[in-house]
Amino acid sequence: MGSATIFFWLQLPNVTKSYRTALTITGIVTLIATYHYIRIFNSWSEAFTVASKDGGDYHVKLTGAPFNDGYRYVDWLLTVPLLLIELILVMKLPQEETVSLSWKLGLASALMVALGYPGEIQEDLSVRWFWWCLSMIPFCYVVFTLAVGLAESTSKQPSPAAASLVSAARYLTVLSWCTYPFVYMVKSVGLAGPAATMYEQVGYSIADVMAKAVFGVLIWAIASEKSAVEESGELLPN
Amino acid sequence: MGSATIFFWLQLPNVTKSYRTALTITGIVTLIATYHYIRIFNSWSEAFTVASKDGGDYHVKLTGAPFNDGYRYVDWLLTVPLLLIELILVMKLPQEETVSLSWKLGLASALMVALGYPGEIQEDLSVRWFWWCLSMIPFCYVVFTLAVGLAESTSKQPSPAAASLVSAARYLTVLSWCTYPFVYMVKSVGLAGPAATMYEQVGYSIADVMAKAVFGVLIWAIASEKSAVEESGELLPN
Known about the structure:
mainly alpha, homodimer, 7 helices, two-stranded antiparallel sheet, Rhopdopsin 7-helix transmembrane proteins, globular
């Protein structure tokens, strides 16, 4: 995540001015994630300790310090609206549409994260499902808006390469976003204990790398391709 | 490793735009390695403690905390595909070939690292050999593709200096890559205990410095030489 941030920011001079804000935000998203993953790493290390070694196998026990999954939700509350804004900015829509889409998708996605948290910290399965369902309302709105909006935008891109990158960003968005509600369900379907916690953490981590770093590389590739097209366009007689 | 990163990034303005992404990634590889070597260093320090001093000799014993060699594999999972991509980028092949080679070699090398890990954490020798053999399949594919591809590419370089640097990169790649499977075998041939662990760590560390920092310097030299040739070419009447 941290390396992705540096990559995006070092690429700033290589794209035209119109795409620099999008690329700056792309790097901020992975920077915020880097910070929270350090917090999550430390919280995880403090929650478990190696109790004994039996042959090649280590036995791990709880230290009593809680593993704080709240860091993820604080991270998402900040990064998910920013992720949507970086995508909207790289599309280079008319200014009015950019502002209105940023507000609508930004607020809906923050609401989605906020509604997910009360369920995440619950052990009562029916309460978990209740908040999951509430959170899915803004989730469906955002994913549907993106899927439709990006499909329209694909045809308006300035080159076939840009169009195919926007199309890849569209599929990656839908795929990576849909991972989260399924990972959330790991505990809602009654799985419990250390294995469930481990699957949940591995699942969220993979989804985060896809939705932030890999998605960011696509945003950079779109910005880079569109910059090249615009620059070569300026050199033509028309 | 950290110093190499700073060197590569400070050299960014000295190469032409076409080679900046390659040089950015070269610095990211050594940055990711720096991070993991700090983790490896800390894990090593926590796993051993000085028990007593007897004349000039220190006696070291295990603290019970495991030495976590997993950091190397996480490092390789990220850096090995990136290393291959930096090499492909500095070759400046047609865009389609760049994308297809990056995917093929990137995925094959990630698979190679992933298949090595289950064997590395095993004490059963036959299981170690099983995973070593599986991991050698993508290894051979990558090394063979590089050796052949770089041989062809050497003749297409814009100057004799660039051609001899690409040829050096080719030998360094094959030589440093072939170190890893031999170091892996230190424990597979039945060596065990502190000495085997020490040889393994020293071997991997030397191979890493060659494959990342020294290799990176070659990438920089190629980018630098080709930039100079391209810039002087622009000044010629044709």
